[in-house]
């Protein structure tokens, strides 16, 4: 669930010296000379064709484009990774890498989420920066742009953070739940605070890898309280020991259902129970997070497994999930065989040549994770006549 592989991290372990080189080069306006740029500087590895908000967005907002929204939100998550790297490498605000990933989009950092166990930054709240927007004659927030975004990073393979990051990775691997982590409570409280401040329809939560796991479970916890927040989950973890044991139990349960279906008593009631367990009650609002998965990434690829005999179908990004069923907006990237670090990386989600397919389906894993949101008490079974 790592954002960067060990080999990649070694490239940026030079600390503040490389950052100082960037400042000197920028001051001398020799940006293309000497290879002094940090590989994670926005102008080096950031998106190429994603524009900053301008007055034209008041007429036709770029935020209404799903590709634009996905790219910008992925940049916000990258900023959280870099907030922690800036902290570890003691970069001053003048040479910090993280701000360059939100400033072009007219957002500002208002809060960092800090893990009390090791002091690391694992999340951040970014709000629309009205003053910066007005300076560029953007008189109001473009339609579709969230007022606030809670972004959560994944695992960093760096010595100051690796212990606690791996601890949460193992927590998910063993239990498929992150509720016992201090980060879960911190993220949940942060999301509640901005939901109360701005309203749930004006904010969103986003995460990558382990951070996507937190974002999914935090968003689900809030949805259980009737607060539905837009969620964008990049390479969310889909592998756990709990899931493996549950699959074994489901196979045994399937056999038992087949046996019960052969019995004359209560078959009608049992059919009603099974139907209620696999569909959303009429009139109930549905929470549909956006999931972005790569078929070559073994950490998240199990989200594409269909639920039973249901088939997936490709459609446009603005297509709604199937009504009456548990679902999410699942975007699948298929590029053939890729190396793990490439398939699991965050940078792919703002690349120019990205071709996504939206699978409007009920994946087995999504159905399992969202089913508890819509569970109703089972109807009482009536005793059948023995005569």
TrEMBL record:
Gene3D superfamilies: alpha/beta hydrolase. One of its GO terms (molecular function) is hydrolase activity. Pfam families: Lipase_3. Keywords: Hydrolase. Residues 185-226 form the Fungal lipase-type domain. Signal peptide: none annotated. Coiled coil: none annotated. It comes from the Eukaryota. This is Fungal lipase-type domain-containing protein. It comes from Cinchona calisaya.
């Amino acid at each position: 669930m790592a954002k960067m592989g060990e080999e990649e991290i070694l490239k940026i372990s030079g600390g503040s010296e490389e950052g100082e080189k960037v400042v000197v080069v920028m001051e001398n306006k020799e940006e293309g000379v000497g290879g002094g740029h940090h590989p994670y500087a926005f102008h080096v590895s950031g998106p190429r064709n994603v524009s900053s908000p301008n007055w034209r967005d008041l007429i036709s907002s770029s935020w209404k484009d799903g590709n634009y929204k996905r790219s910008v939100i992925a940049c916000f998550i990258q900023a959280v990774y870099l907030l922690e790297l800036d902290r570890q490498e003691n970069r001053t605000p003048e040479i910090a890498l993280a701000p360059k990933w939100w400033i072009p989009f007219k957002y500002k950092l208002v809060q960092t989420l800090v893990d009390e166990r090791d002091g690391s930054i694992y999340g951040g709240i970014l709000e629309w920066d009205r003053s910066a927007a007005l300076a560029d004659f953007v008189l109001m927030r473009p339609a579709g742009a969230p007022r606030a975004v809670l972004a959560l990073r994944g695992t960093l393979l760096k010595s100051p953070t690796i212990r606690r990051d791996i601890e949460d990775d193992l927590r998910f691997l063993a239990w498929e739940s992150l509720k016992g982590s201090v980060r879960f409570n911190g993220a949940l409280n942060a999301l509640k605070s901005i939901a109360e401040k701005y309203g749930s329809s004006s904010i969103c939560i986003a995460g990558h890898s382990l951070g996507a796991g937190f974002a999914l479970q935090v968003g689900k916890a809030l949805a259980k309280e009737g607060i539905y927040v837009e969620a964008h989950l990049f390479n969310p973890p889909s592998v756990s020991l709990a899931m493996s044991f549950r699959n074994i139990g489901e196979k045994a349960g399937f056999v038992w259902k087949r046996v019960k279906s052969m019995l004359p008593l209560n078959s009608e009631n049992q059919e009603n129970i099974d139907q209620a367990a696999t569909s959303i009650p009429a009139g109930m609002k549905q929470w549909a997070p956006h999931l972005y998965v790569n078929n070559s990434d073994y950490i998240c690829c199990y989200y594409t497994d269909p639920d039973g005999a249901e088939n997936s179908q490709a459609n446009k990004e603005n297509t709604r999930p199937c009504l009456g069923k548990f679902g999410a907006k699942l975007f699948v990237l298929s590029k053939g065989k890729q190396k793990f670090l490439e398939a699991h990386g965050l940078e792919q989600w703002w690349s120019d040549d990205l071709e996504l397919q939206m699978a409007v389906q009920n994946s087995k894993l999504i159905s399992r994770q969202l089913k508890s949101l819509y569970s109703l008490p089972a109807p009482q079974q009536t005793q059948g006549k023995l005569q």
